[in-house]
Amino acid sequence: MRVALAQIASTRDIEANLKTCRRLAEDAVEQGAGWVIFPECAPFLGPDRDKLPVAETLQGSQIQTFQALARELQAAITVGSFAERSPDPTRTFNTQVHITPAGDIAAVYRKIHLFDARVDGDLTLTESASVVGGQDAVLTAVQVQGEEAKVGLTICYDLRFPELYRELAFRGAEMLTVPSAFTRPTGQAHWHTLLRARAIENQTFVLAPNQWGHHYGTRASFGNSVIYDPWGECLGCLEEGDGVVVADLNLERQREVRQKMPVLTHQRRGLSAPGQHEV
Ligand SMILES: O=C(O)CNC(=O)[C@H](CS)NC(=O)CCC(=O)C(=O)O
């Protein structure tokens, strides 16, 4: 299957962000992709005080726009995340949505781990002040160009919690999405290493579209949207700029990697019950 990661520099201008998303999705489909994955906060990335008023439900206009786009392009679309209204009127969920080529919502994942950190001198992020963490790991089946893959959904800071990825792998994940707004300093230090480790240790494809460039204030993202295969090989990376990373994912290659070195069946401590396959 041919997939695409879309890399953008989202701001608080929702209309402009959605316009860029459309242009990149069209570009990806023109290059033969059947599945387009957008970064975290693709429709809106702005200060917390501006986020709450634009939070929507799954039935709101932001997700509807992506559903219409999927139908029009006949491609699966993963909205890396959007600000979803939560039961707490002062906070949102940070929610990833997978949409089929028919425009139906197939899976919804609410970011579990929230990024509260002093990034460097002038940038402190307190995600838990404006976001309610989700509870559940989510695995879904994705159909692309006549092939099906089991995909574990994660977001950004989740990447630092390998147990989540192991659980998804044990449940049968063949691919992991990590749409992100990874900051420039932490991205420089850790982005490729963590993603490649998740790919190698779980023997899964890792699909990681990132925000890039300047968003607001001192907030900037690292770019470097990247796809790693189950052997840790880089199948494509875009360091900077709006654009797409297109790659062919060979599920046969993954079976080969897992057959030669069946790591997931060798685990002796910690999480148990490998080999469960549920979707
Ligand atoms: O706040 C928003 O508007 C959108 N959300 C994000 O950008 C999130 C939470 S602040 N960013 C991360 O998780 C970056 C993690 C990261 O950079 C690391 O783990 O190093």
Bound molecules: N-(4-carboxy-4-oxobutanoyl)-L-cysteinylglycine
Fraction of residues in helices?
25-40%
Q: Give the CATH architecture.
A: 4-Layer Sandwich
- Any idea how many domains? 1
Radius of gyration: 17 Å
Topology record:
Blueprint: E1 2-7, H1 14-30, E2 35-37, H2 48-54, H3 61-73, E3 76-85, E4 92-99, E5 105-110, E6 116-120, E7 123-126, E8 138-144, E9 147-153, H4 162-170, E10 175-177, H5 184-202, E11 205-208, E12 212-216, E13 219-222, E14 225-228, E15 234-238, E16 243-248, H6 251-260
Parallel strand pairs: 1-2, 2-3, 9-10, 10-11
Antiparallel strand pairs: 1-16, 3-4, 4-5, 6-7, 8-9, 11-14, 12-13, 14-15
Family: Belongs to the carbon-nitrogen hydrolase superfamily. NIT1/NIT2 family.
Protein name: Hydrolase
GO molecular function: hydrolase activity, acting on carbon-nitrogen (but not peptide) bonds, in linear amides
Describe the structure.
The chain contains 6 helices and 16 strands. Helix 1 (14-30) packs parallel to helix 3. Strand 12 (212-216) and strand 13 form a beta hairpin. With 279 residues, the protein is an alpha/beta fold. The protein starts with a strand and ends in a 19-residue tail after the last helix. It is globular, with a radius of gyration of 17 Å. It has a single domain, classed as Nitrilase/N-carbamoyl-D-aminoacid amidohydrolase. The mean pLDDT is 95. Helices cover 27% and strands 31% of the residues. The strands form 4 sheets. A 6-stranded mixed beta sheet has the order 5-4-3-2-1-16. The chain has a 6-stranded mixed beta sheet with strand order 8-9-10-11-14-15, covered by helices on one side. N-(4-carboxy-4-oxobutanoyl)-L-cysteinylglycine (KGT) binds next to loops.
